[in-house]
Design brief:
Hypothetical Protein Tm1070, Chain: A, Immunoglobulin-like, 5% helix, 447 residues, rod-shaped, mainly beta
Length: 447
């Protein structure tokens, strides 16, 4: 009859590594017990193991061990929460070699059946009551939060329990992403200054602003995993730098709310195995501005919410709206009697261009002026055009615009940015003195 040895000699023997046989997870899909990465990010997990383990013997002493001892130990902080009806069976004959005896923290000890033996080169399964697999609830492990993997140590000793005949210490637990979201097409477009910033380059419409299509693919990888998380719902959220609702942007899919475009996923898309492939087209009748877009896919689990997008990705990876052409700002244009601000721009390109000015007063009121609809010239190819601050201010008709204080000015010239040179100066008309003003080139497009 097999004896359970607890002597110091046994303990010493069990720590002797032989590394001869093999222990693997017997699963047609994975070679490890794969636990949802999302589950372990949210907290510690009680993982129900349903994959049987396969041990192939390579004994260090002789070819056969009669009534040997067995222990299965989990490492890396993993402990056994529950083990019921586990046994070791011959992989070919299904005959029982050993049955579960007791649990000691992270270790399961098996008692060998009378007359049973282990033979070199033969394989054996660690299974549950059925004899063919491990059923739900027959083996449950406590896995610490943020665990990335774990080992199992399987030890075979001789009948007295003194000599270690085989030791296998191998990776049997790993983690993987259960939910992923990838970007297929960036939400990128160039705002056409020549349309008064109402539409995008190439859109062919003066009344709507339509971007390229934007797609997020949301995939549930659960079928290839052993231990998965239950998800209640998921939402794609695209966030801009400014309030899209305020400028009249609407979406063909989902809801525009302030800076966010919110697209809820249906239950089937959240829990199914097929990819979500949504196209978002944005349109609006008002002026649009340059912005960067950030995308998140919030996956809502029972015990928390995680973003399925790659958190390390930068905002530019998800697209941006830029103004086509040269763009520059003069932050402080003096509106005071006896002073004049002069602007000069040279167009070194081979194309004529209109010129667009945006004025902002101290309270944030915006006035837009352009050479298409107002009383000043554009800029010819290879030529230089000059403008005066007082003349631009005189064209502003909005009564809310405060003309008594300094204002900021932005200029947009829709040609290649490196082909335009800008200069600004402030002149004291009484003294005839002037000084250069800073002009900041913030052109977003790179050639």
């Amino acid at each position: 009859m097999k004896k359970i040895i607890t002597s110091a000699a046994t303990a010493a023997a069990l720590t002797t590594a032989v590394f001869a046989g093999t222990l693997v997870v017997d699963n047609p899909t994975n070679d490890k017990i794969v636990i949802s990465e999302e589950l372990l990010t949210l907290g510690a997990v009680q993982a129900n193991v349903t994959d049987r383990l396969k041990y192939t013997a390579e004994l260090s002493l002789g070819s056969t061990a009669s009534e040997p001892g067995f222990s299965l130990e989990f490492t890396d902080g993993i402990t056994v929460a529950l083990a019921n009806n586990l046994k070791i069976v011959d992989a070919n004959t299904s005959s029982v070699v050993a049955t579960q005896n007791f649990i000691n923290g992270n270790q399961i000890i098996f008692a060998t059946q009378g007359g049973a033996s282990v033979v070199n080169g033969k394989s054996y399964y660690i299974v549950g009551a059925s004899g063919t697999g491990i059923a739900l609830g027959e083996l449950t492990l406590n896995v610490p939060q943020n665990t990335t993997g774990g080992k199992a140590k399987f030890v075979v000793t001789d009948n007295p329990g003194v000599t270690t005949l085989d030791t296998v210490d191998t990776d049997v637990i790993s983690t993987g992403e259960q939910f992923t979201a990838t970007l297929n097409t960036k939400l990128s477009a160039e705002i056409d200054a020549a349309s008064g910033f109402l539409n995008f380059v190439g859109s062919g419409s003066a009344t709507s602003s339509t971007t390229d299509s934007f797609k997020v693919t949301y995939i549930n990888n659960a079928p290839s995993m052993s231990i998965v998380a239950g998800v209640n719902s998921a939402t794609i959220k695209i966030t801009a730098d400014y309030n899209l609702t305020a400028v009249g942007i609407t979406s063909s899919l989902g809801t525009v709310s302030g800076k966010d475009i919110i697209i809820p996923l249906t239950a089937a898309e959240s829990n199914g195995t097929t990819a979500f492939d949504g196209v978002v087209s944005l349109s609006g009748a008002n002026v649009v501005s340059a912005t960067n877009f950030v995308v998140s896919v919030d996956t809502n689990f029972t015990n928390g919410t995680l973003n399925a997008m790659d958190a390390a990705a930068s905002a530019d990876d998800f697209g941006k709206w830029t103004v086509y052409g040269y763009t520059a700002q003069i932050p402080n244009v003096l509106a005071k009697t006896g002073f004049e601000t002069n602007f000069k721009f040279t167009n070194a390109s081979t194309e004529d261009s209109e010129v667009y000015f945006t004025l902002r007063d101290m309270d944030g009121t915006v006035a837009k002026l352009d050479s298409v609809t107002h009383a000043f010239d554009g800029i010819k190819a290879g030529a230089t055009a000059k403008y005066k601050g007082t003349e631009l201010l005189a064209l502003v008709t909005d009564a809310e615009f405060d003309k008594t204080q300094s204002y900021s000015l932005e200029v947009s010239i829709p040609v290649a940015p490196e082909q335009v040179y800008g200069f600004a100066s402030l002149r004291n008309l009484t003294l005839g003195q002037f000084k250069d003003l800073p002009i900041y080139n913030t052109s977003a497009r790179t050639y």
